[in-house]
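User: For my dataset I need records formatted as: sequence, then structure tokens, nothing else. Please produce one.
Assistant:
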Amino acid sequence: MPNAEFNCWLTDRLGENSFETTRIPFSALVNWKSEAATENLVHAEGRFFTVEGLQVETDYGAATCWHQPITIRSKWAFSSRRSTGCCTASCQPRCNRATSTTGR
């Protein structure tokens, strides 16, 4: 799907739904914990997904380095970040971390 077509679809979908979020501390999440070794947010039973932190470094654009969370599922990775008031999201198949050396 071309970006312009996706943007139109997403705009239409956002107009059809209303969303509300409330920030709560991680400690208030039931059955979720921070792993001691990695500080990743994981479910106590190992179900669902994990939230890992990334440090991104690039020589492209105005921002050359930032930190952001990424949601890891078994076969897909989801990430988002907010920059200058705009939230961007990404979904892509996971790469083998042992061999992946560049971001996409």
